[in-house]
Every structure is written in structure tokens, then in C-alpha cells.
Amino acid sequence: MSNKRDFYDILGVDRGAENDTIKKAYRKMAMKYHPDRNPGDAGAEAKFKEASEAADVLLTPDKKQRYDQFGHAGMDPNQGFGGFGGAGDFADLGDIFGDIFGDILGGGRRRGGRSRHRPGHDLQMTLDVDFEEAAFGIEKNISLTRNVKCGECHGSGGKNGSTPTSCDMCNGIGEVRRQQGFFTVASACPKCHGAGQMISDPCNKCHGEGRRKKQIELAVKVPAGIDEGQRLKLSGEGDVGLSGGASGDLYVVVSINEHDLFERDQFDVYCQVPISISQAALGAEVEVPTLNGKVSVNIPSGTQSGTKMRLKNKGIQKLGGYGQGDQYIEIHVETPANLSIEQREIFVRLMEIEDEGTAPMSRGFLEKMKNLFH
After folding, report:
1. What are 246-275's pLDDT values in tens digits?
2. What b/e readout covers 359-374, taking b as 16+ CB neighbours within 10 angstroms?
């Protein structure tokens, strides 16, 4: 009887597991115990070989069928089961698990080299706008430095428009292979970096890259209602791609400057309005600033400091033009300083005739204080 461990137990999967489940289980073990990640660790190498053998059998339909029916004996040619290869025969393992080894070794398996057509990078910048500009929208010019197509070689990277030639190290395949133990390890060609092609006569201006740094100016439309930290996407305005690859995008992050009078919460605007003691006591009509100009607001008599009032639809237009926020004003009753002689005399007289009953906050405070000390 074989003393080998059950292949399903090795990979930690059920007997009814599908190929995707088996592959995921093997990938997890291979990433953990691969010799390249555990140099000199004989135990890790043994576990890697054990997992590889198990995955080789369970992911090959005829081998899996024989193993499910006869167990390890079905894999042993000495038991009369020929044509399946002996233990440790992994000549085609790279073809069966190419995607798994690609994860381990840093990139997928390549056929004919990696395309030189690579997309450009996305870029990001911050745009400062004033409070009103964010509220009403504006078009602003921005300046940035990005990679653009080389005008000398028109993006080919070759001098006078010359085309790339096949890499002489990997013969245009884009990868090199080396033998490690019982299997072959493939990695990107160090000379052409996996492209399979080389620029033999590079452009003098861009040194074969096909693109150069350049400062450009763009017009950006800032929509009405945009808020702090929101991004505007300018498709195709990032770095130009390599060898005809698509350009990246530009993301413009909006930063709103503080306003002297207004604060913002989404689409609502807040403003603090100072009034005098006499205006608060007697009531008054006061002018209040809004984003659309001054409006007259009635202050009822007896208004207390901290009172909030709502001005409907006087806030910021919502993005897309669907509705508008409100403006909220907070009343701040100011105590006068540096009184004139006449003013002081009036306040002294007022203090002499003040009645606690006309001051609701004081009345409530004094009542609570009495209850506290009795």
C-alpha cells in the first residue's frame, strides 16, 4: 500500500472540487512554498513538489479519472497502468499551470513577447477655485507637464522613424528560461524587458522612448455646485502611451478657497450676521449678504444670540442643475464696547429698570440655580 498522502488532502480540497478551486488551492501553496521564495529550505521545496504533483494529477482529466478510481496505484506503471508517467514526471507542468507560475514569477507567460503598445499613466493635479467659482461654475486654464509624443520620431522611438528589431537574447519571444530542479522557470527577458523587440537605432531626442516631457495648457470646465475634494476627469489628457498605446487620463482635484463671510455644507451656505442689542430687543430689518446679492431680513423683537434663520433656495446650485440649497444665517447679538457717556447713562438706567421676566434665559437660569441650592 502506498504511503503517499492523498492528493486532495495535500491541496485541502474536496473530492468533488472543480478545476478553479483546485487551481486556487495550488496557487496558494505554490506562492508559499516556491523555491524562489524559500532559498535553501528543503522542507519548503518538498512541499512544493508534493503540491505540484497533486495538482498535475487532479487537473489532468485522464490522470484524475484513474486516480479517483484506483488511488496512487493508478499512477504507478509497475501496477500495470501505463501511459501516465511516473511520480515526479512534470515535463508539461509549465503548460498546465502557466497562469499560476506567472503569478509567482511576476507576470504571465508570454507568447511572442509582450506588446510594446503600453498605455500612458494617469495624472492628477489640484486646482484652486474661489468659493463663488465653485458655486456658479467657471472655465479655468491649467498648466501641467506630461509626456507627449516625440515630434522627432513621431512616437516610434527609432531614429528617422526606423522600426524595432527582434531581440537577440530571447529571439523575439520576450522571455528566457532556466532549469531549476525538475521544472523550467520562465522570466521576462532582461534585455528587452519582455517586449521581444529592441530599438537598434534610437531617436536622438527621446532616446528610443517615443515620447518626451512637455509643459502644456488646458482649459478645464468647473461645473456649478462642485464641492471640496471632488475630481474632474479629463479623458486622454494624461501621459501619452508607448508605441501607440492609449493615453492616460488627467484627474483634477478641486480645492475651494475659504470665503470671508460664507461657509458651506454640501449645497447649503452658512453666514453669521451681527446685530445690536437694541435691534435684537426691538426687532429690525437688516440686510443680509447672499451669493446672489443682498436681501432684507426681518429680525423679530426679542431675538436671542445664536438664533438661526433659513433663506430658502439661497444656497448653491446642485450638481447637474437639479435644485438648489438653502442659506442659513446665525444671529450674533453684539455687546457694545467703548461706550460714550450718553450710551453709558442709558444702559445704567436700563439696568435699574430691567425686569427678570422680560429675559427668558435669565429667568430660567435663576430658577434652576434656586432649585440647585435648596
Report:
1. 889 999 999 999 999 999 999 999 999 999
2. eeeeeeeeeeeeeeee
Distance from C-alpha of 163 to C-alpha of 197, rounded to nearest angstrom: 10
pLDDT recorded at residue 86: 42
What is the C-alpha separation between 67 and 79, in angstroms, rounded?
13
Percent of the chain having pLDDT more than 70? 80
Report the distance separating Cα 152 and Cα 148, nearest Å: 12
Ordered by where they begin, the domains of the chain are 7-105 (1.10.287.110), 114-156+207-258 (2.60.260.20), 262-335 (2.60.260.20), 344-374 (no CATH)
Measured CA distances, 52 to 5, 45, 239, 338, 339 (Å): 13, 10, 42, 90, 92
Question: CA geometry: angle at 13 spanning 91 and 27, to 5°?
Answer: 50
Single-letter residue type at 180: Q
Q: Is 153 left (phi over 0), alpha (psi -120 to 50) or beta?
A: alpha
pLDDT in tens, 35-67: 777 877 888 888 888 888 888 889 888 888 888
- Alpha carbon distances (Å) from 51 to 2, 57, 59, 108, 208: 17, 10, 12, 20, 44
pLDDT band for position 355 (50/70/90)? low
Contact 44, 35 (CB under 8 A): yes
Which segments of the chain are extended strands (E)? Answer: 123-129, 138-149, 165-166, 175-180, 183-188, 197-198, 211-222, 231-234, 250-256, 262-265, 268-276, 284-290, 293-299, 308-311, 327-334
Residues 280-296 have pLDDT tens digits of 888 999 999 999 999 99
| Residues written for the chain | 374
Indicate yes or no: pTM above 0.85.
no
Nearest to 299 by CA among 320, 273, 321, 261: 273
Cα separation, 247 vs 118, whole angstroms: 9
Closest to 175 (Cα-Cα) out of 198, 150, 192, 156: 192
